[in-house]
Amino acid sequence: MKKINFEKIEIFTDVSKTKTFTGDGREEFANLLYTGCNGIAAHALAFKIYESRGAIEISEAEETLIMGVAEQRCTPAFIDGIKKQLNEEA
Length: 90
Hints:
Largest sheet: 2 strands, antiparallel
Low-confidence stretches: none
Number of strands: 4
Mean pLDDT: 95
């Protein structure tokens, strides 16, 4: 299982990826899942992220859901921040 920390998500602030901002993306990303996805899996993951403190373990199915939502609804900078964390935990 991989881990991700939405409480301290590192977001790139330039295309060269040399500058970052670390912020709390729990509520915003949980809202994307809660309001934009169908199914109980999205509901459960939204609350898992929203109520998290620090890094959480995610299953392969949760990773697929996270990346699908991120790639459809988030900025490239945020997507790269998620990918960076997931690759570090691999």
